[in-house]
Amino acid sequence: MLKGKTAVLAVTGSIAAYKIANLARMLGKLGCNVQVLMTENATNFINPITFETLTSNRCFIDTFDRNFQYSVEHVALAKQADVVMIAPADANVIGKIANGIADDMLTTTVMACPCRKLVAPAMNHNMYHNPIVQDNIKKLAAYGYGIITPDTGMLANGDIGDGRMPDESVLLEHILREIACEKDLAGKRVLVTAGATREAIDPVRFITNHSSGKMGFAIARAAMLRGAEVTIVAAHTDVAPPMFCEVVPVVSAADMFEAVAARAPESDIVIKAAAVSDYTPETTADSKLKKSDADMSIPLKRTQDILKYLGANKRPGQFLCGFSMETDNVLENSRKKLSSKNCDMICANSLRTAGAGFGTDTNVITLITEDSDTELPLMSKEDAAHKILDVILEKTK
Fold this sequence. Notes:
Elements: E1 6-11, H1 18-29, E2 33-38, H2 48-55, H3 73-80, E3 83-89, H4 91-98, H5 105-112, E4 116-121, H6 125-128, H7 131-142, E5 146-147, E6 151-154, E7 160-164, H8 168-179, E8 189-194, E9 199-200, E10 206-207, H9 214-225, E11 229-234, E12 246-249, H10 253-263, E13 269-272, E14 279-281, E15 300-302, H11 306-312, E16 319-326, H12 330-340, E17 345-350, E18 362-363, E19 366-369, E20 372-375, E21 379-380, H13 381-395
Helix pairs in contact: 1-2, 1-8, 3-5, 4-7, 9-13
């Protein structure tokens, strides 16, 4: 995912420095070239050899070290960088950069970098809320630096408060949002539905399906990484939603219909990936449970057809994509849905195909439009999500 990209990790004097070793490892596994800068204070918390072992690159500390590969080392690193992350960022370095002080290898390199720069403050909560530190953070934000909000929890001295640096998985997502993908969806508003709706029979039981939400979330994350403004209307899911997306939680098909209908008119691309229950009980959810209920048939009525509504109310220029999960006659049934629901594309798959269907991390999809059928091989849902977006972009040019 990050092959050909360079991330500069700038590590300062905070106990949270130990987390950056794992972040460097995670970036390396994605093919990223990782360069690490450290302040002298940071070397008291973690040895530079750790980073050199994980990245296969020399760790830079001294601006005037004569054992270098380039004529002006900090400028050479700045030219390479696609993103710089200062993490952990202590109060000292935040203050230096905010006020234009460049007196070591880390600060001179950061000053010389024209790329996007992210700052993850990490310090005691009293220090973090010091008005001078807060002013410096605001100044960095005004200069275009991305500020990553600290977590709240137990700090190194045992206090409870904010000031903790987020986990490395969160830091990784911030880097991926910046450099993982070309921003070919910048300026687009994308609405995605995901998960399985639940229709209450009574206070105990409900009707649902096996949808995990993985495919919908994969599409939402891919669109976010490609620069779109993403809203997810999410029913029950088995996985956490992607970061940097607005999430609207819903339960029933009626809830989802209401949420989607309110947001679809403002969306450029609408992708209905949720598995909505086709039926809901005619009785109310708060009816009292009786012992005989388990032996009685439950009167059902059809839920609102969300995709059909979206197709009937599609505004000019809007792209509508639906999903079709079939067991037989996949292409024939999916083409009927394409026409009857007024969709621009249907993503069709079969429950009978190995690696496809509910709950898996892979999928086998055929992308059906008015003039083409594109059969995708078995691939991860993440890769399938990007293929879906590729076709949508091609069709909307």
